[in-house]
Specification:
The chain is α+β, with helices and mostly antiparallel strands. The protein contains seven helices and 14 strands. A four-stranded antiparallel sheet has the order 1-2-3-4.
Length: 299
Amino acid sequence: MSGNGVMAEVTGNEGRWTFDGALVRIVPGNGRGVHRLRRILGELEVPLEAVAGIAYEPGKKGGVLRVRLRQGADPLVQAAGNALDESSDPYRLSLDRDAAALAEYFVDEVRNTLQIEQIGTGPVDRYLLPGPSVPLRASGGEGSVTFDGETVRLDWSWMAEGSKQKAGPKQFTLADVLKVELHPSVGLDEGHLRFHMKDQGAPPKPKHDPYCLTLWGTKKEGASAIAVAAAVVARLPHPSAPPSDDVPALPEAAAPEPAAADDHDVLLRRLRELGDLHKEGILTDEEFATAKQALLRRF
């Protein structure tokens, strides 16, 4: 390890990646060819526990360094889905052929550390990256959306459908949002950024939905919309977060079932099932004790 804490470093036209044993730091380039989304996101610090894998893929003229994140670790990936392409994906770095040795060394360092630290590769139930910084603004063909970290606002231009102009500007907080839906533009088909509201029924078509900004497919427009979507998603509850009550979620086989107060056979059977799960290591000591008390309270 060098004096500045960097164990490995590799640089390409799209930016520079460094690894210090705990973080993969991704700094975007500032050239004209660097995608706008990379520049909006700025420097990314990817904790080692968020990394599922890393690889270098050599080609005829160069190669590509990729880092794969664990499912659910990054709100950007969660929000963007297939809206990220080769030029906009910040977890992909194109390299010249003469950087192959450095890239392979970089991969070896990250992989070795993942193995030593015994980092898992499965899904996670909380975001391990913070999402884009706010405030953010994205423009569409019919208006704009802004997000300051707490409040989302949609404003319409004269090009918006009459139903949206009649509804006027829409402003709402994160507490009102059920989920965020982002569809990229494909060919001549418009994309959209839609906010599903908790008190809203089945939404109308995007061009009529006052909580939806249609996108015409320009790179500038698409990059900003992805950033806004990711910033909102980062501040919403994680889709795989455990239940918020004090009783831990149990495997389906261990979930207590309704029963009469005098149904001792069911109680004994459920206690045995909990005991088996505890012995097998599926339930920790604390989870076993809590689940046992919850089960006894039900009978």
